[in-house]
Amino acid sequence: MFNNSTQKKCWIFHSEEILENMRNKANQTFQSKLLASVTISPNDSLPLLEPHEEKMLRKYYEKRLLDFCSAFKPSMPKSVMGTASMYFKRFYLNNSLMEYHPRTIMLTSVYLACKVDEFNVSSSQFVANLWESPAAQEKALEQILEYELLLIQQLNFHLIIHNPFRPFEGFLIDLKARYSAFENPEVLRKTADEFLSRETMTDAGLLFTPSQIALAAIHFSASRVGINMDSYLMECLMLKDNKERLSKLIEALRSIKTLVKKYDPPKLEEVNLMKQKLEHFHSLDLGISTNLKKRKGYKEDEVIAKRAKVEEEEWSDDDLIDTM
Fold first, then answer.
1. How many Å separate Cα 27 from the centre of its chain?
2. pTM listed for this prediction
3. Which of 33, 54, 62, 82 shows the smallest number of beta carbons within 10 Å?
4. In sequence order, what are the residues at sequence separation of 6 or more whose Cβ sits closer than 8 angstroms to the Cβ of residue 23?
5. Below-70 pLDDT ranges, the chain
6. How far is residue 213's CA from residue 255's CA, in Å, rounded to a whole number?
């Protein structure tokens, strides 16, 4: 299924540099569009975010997304969390955090992932994980629904996500059935699960296949308990006589483990400063056609959305604290 998927054809990239260039381009494109649309006096300046500042905030909200999913009631399947995370990452490959607030895109990504992965929760159940106040829940849901079409469009309607969790279970079953050198593969689960959770906060899902990521988690966990998996790769995966494929696989596993190992969560003090800058920017009434805070209509498709009843700045990250 993965080999014929839009994920393989359109959303697997060859290098981290390509991803960085795409994000930098999104940042610069928005800044250029903004500066061409507004008049600024010589004594004024806009609180624009630079690419490295957007990166910091993006990493912060990726972690917030995972925390929200982990605390969700009823308990959310890992596949939904993985799908939502990939929606968020894909969206910001071509869009700036200054144009679309990451808090709203984060929640909309999770809401859409629940639908696509058939995790059946009602809209009221969903927003109940955010606030206790019915009025605040209504405001949140209105904005999520408002952004849903935009998110789908920016994903090019490619909504099916292949996560590493299913191949991970498949590899465990295969180890139990065909790899007699390993008595109890279940001992790998805990460390491998932690590896996959940390991997979700990296760009591995945009660079490698789900099966490679799953195998990297098993390989990493096995190394922690002193088990060499080379014979499994060569014999059970039938790569013994295909040195080129074996070499490529080992290199991919090494790269994935390096990505996970070097992941460095942003420092809270720096994040708070960038959040203030972002909130300041989104509070400005710049009056340009892109409609920074909400983006109600989509002119290219001649779709006009209703006017919002609530401004985005009326709610903030503080509203999420109690559930995370």
1. 18
2. 0.87
3. 33
4. 51, 54, 55, 92, 93
5. 39-44, 131-132, 238, 240, 287-324
6. 10
